[in-house]
Amino acid sequence: MLKPTSFLRGILFLFVALLFVQCEKDESEPKASNTIKMDGNSFVVASASIVGVSIDNDGHTGITLVSGSGTQANTLTIDIESVTKETIEGNYAYPKVNGKKLLDDWLTNYSVFDGTSISSSNLEYGEVTLSHNGGNNYTIDMSLKMDDGVTFIGEYTGEFKVMFNNQ
Asked: What is the pLDDT of residues 88-97, one digit of tens each?
């Protein structure tokens, strides 16, 4: 016959063992995080996508982050040179820096939709680092200055909607 303390001790041991197994799994999965600031104010990412197109080993990938609420939407699109999903990881800069891939100044832009008005600006200069965490989870670290003086600084890690069309 089992004593109540032995039984409780066994259940407690099982509970602690399961807790450690669960914690180990959680730590190995990529977490979502966002520290991006637009001119020093939080840029809360509501939607993130990566769309790449290439033909004959020449291509571009647009990384789009959308933030907003109510009648206002802020959209940041970062355009990088890449050929396939496997080639998008890396360091990018504009103007061109040795050892870094090119960040497109004309296709990298942000737009603010506020009710009935729209404003936008292109990239003046900046750097971006893109890392693939597995699946559709990516980390993008940025320091960008736009033509109108607006800055985007910080890092976003999370799930992206990803689509590539390679010819």
From this structure: 899 999 999 9
